[in-house]
């Protein structure tokens, strides 16, 4: 008997049987992988000139932009790459929501949500490092939220700060964590792909048992390359022509604990959760709602207990609720950037409630719609 030749990992991936009906929305994962690699590479070069010293940090960033050859490009690519990472991350999550990937591949979905959470933490830590006004006060406000934890909240905040306020110890540990966490994201991404290939990718009908399949290469590798070219165009446009369009003007000023910005807000990709936080008068309630706005994604696989998938294409109520959820997300992002005054403060309350209700309806719809059809 002769031994069968085992295919190497590269051949296994390139020859992976894939559904013939993949659309452009299945390009998100590969684009996110490229962006993660770009963030790690540019971050590595930036760390060679960055100084995690409270008195010289801001000047070191200016030095990178003005004096280091190509430093301006690396920093522009790193800062705007983070924004693009979240753009494609939200599109990737939105595709999974619409095509109900959380039902057909619950383990892949759970790991993906974990990647989302770790990415949010990594981005927050990175936003603090330039030590501009909004970086400093954003760190002060966000870390202060932990003080809402009963009994031990204040002690935890001081432990996170490494003192009684955001200072040198805070900057040191934020820099260390920001450098390490992307490698954790890379490991989680590998696990994400492992779970994905265990069952295979779904098609737009949410079905795993495909009859018509084609090899991943060359059909989808070429489609991914087209996605990479589009991504490169977006990076070039932002890095060369609009490098500061997604940033906050306050961050061009050095951090000062004596001057508070008129309107403190996080980066745009956190604004939806920030709007939910501000909509609740209670500090503890606001923090719980902020956490729930993201953690609620973990509970979507509960829909699997309701039976088989009914594709969104054949479920008009599901499409209606889904697009309403997208609308609420966009509105909350806008409200998070608005000042805390009327009518924005009042408007955020009902939209926050509708945001959470949309998830409840999405989980229960498969059961309801199944009874209607069967």
Major sheet: arrangement of strands: 1-2
Indicate the structural class. mainly alpha
Mean pLDDT: 86
Oligomer: single chain
Query: What fold name stands as the CATH topology of the largest domain?
Result: Cytochrome Bc1 Complex, Chain C
User: What does the main sheet amount to?
Assistant: 2 strands, antiparallel
What is the chain-wise order of helices and strands? HEHHHHHHHHEHHHHH
Helix content: 55-70%
Bin the strand percentage. under 5%
Question: Roughly how many Å is the radius of gyration?
Answer: 22 Å
Tally of alpha and pi helices: 14
User: Please, how many domains?
Assistant: 2
Protein name: Cytochrome b
Main location: mitochondrion
Family: Belongs to the cytochrome b family.
GO molecular function: metal ion binding; oxidoreductase activity; quinol-cytochrome-c reductase activity
Give a description of the structure.
Residues 1-5 have low confidence and may be disordered. Strands 1-2 form a two-stranded antiparallel sheet. The protein is mainly α and 374 residues long. Helix 2 (28-47) crosses helix 10 (216-241), helix 4 (71-98) runs antiparallel to helix 6 and helix 11 crosses helix 13. The chain has helices spanning 9-14, 28-47, 57-66, 71-98, 101-104, 106-128, 133-144, 153-161, 168-199, 216-241, 271-278, 283-295, 316-337, 344-373; strands at residues 17-19, 213-215. The chain has 2 domains: 16-261, Cytochrome Bc1 Complex, Chain C (Up-down Bundle); 265-373, Helix Hairpins (Orthogonal Bundle), CATH 1.10.287. The protein contains 14 helices and 2 strands, in the order αβααααααααβααααα. 65% of the residues lie in helices and 2% in strands. The radius of gyration is 22 Å and the shape is globular.
């Amino acid at each position: 008997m002769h031994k069968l030749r085992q295919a190497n990992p590269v051949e296994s991936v390139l020859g992976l049987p894939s559904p013939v009906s993949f659309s452009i929305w299945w390009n998100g994962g590969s684009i996110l992988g490229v962006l993660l690699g770009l963030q790690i590479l540019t971050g590595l070069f930036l760390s060679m000139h960055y100084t995690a010293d409270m008195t010289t940090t801001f000047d070191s960033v200016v030095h990178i932009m003005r004096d280091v050859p190509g430093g301006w490009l690396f920093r522009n690519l790193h800062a705007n790459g983070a924004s693009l990472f979240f753009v494609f991350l939200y599109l990737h999550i939105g595709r999974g929501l619409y095509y109900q990937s959380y039902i057909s591949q619950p383990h892949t979905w759970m790991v993906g949500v974990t990647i989302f959470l770790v990415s949010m933490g990594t981005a927050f830590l990175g936003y603090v490092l330039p030590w501009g006004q909004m970086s400093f006060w954003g760190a002060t406000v966000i870390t202060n939220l932990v003080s809402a934890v009963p009994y031990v909240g204040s002690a935890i905040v001081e432990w996170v700060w490494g003192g009684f306020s955001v200072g040198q110890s805070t900057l040191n540990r934020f820099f260390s964590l920001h450098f390490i966490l992307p490698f954790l994201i890379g490991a989680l991404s590998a696990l994400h792909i492992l779970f994905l290939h265990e069952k295979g990718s779904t098609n737009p009908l949410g079905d795993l048992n495909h009859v018509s399949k084609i090899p991943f290469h060359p059909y989808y590798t070429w489609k991914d390359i087209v996605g990479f070219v589009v991504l490169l165009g977006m990076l070039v446009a932002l890095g060369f022509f609009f490098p500061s369009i997604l940033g906050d003007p306050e961050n061009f000023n050095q951090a000062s604990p004596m001057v508070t910005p008129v309107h403190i807000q996080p980066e745009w990709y956190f604004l939806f959760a920030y709007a939910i936080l501000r909509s609740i008068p209670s500090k503890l309630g606001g923090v719980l709602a902020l956490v729930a706005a993201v953690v609620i994604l973990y509970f979507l696989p509960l829909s699997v207990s309701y039976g088989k998938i009914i594709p969104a294409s054949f479920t008009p109520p599901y499409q209606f609720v889904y697009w309403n959820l997208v609308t609420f997300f966009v509105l909350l992002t806008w409200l998070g950037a608005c000042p805390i005054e009327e009518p924005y403060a009042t408007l955020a309350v009902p939209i926050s409630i509708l945001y959470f209700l949309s998830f409840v309806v999405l989980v229960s719809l498969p059961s309801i719609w199944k009874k209607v059809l069967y």
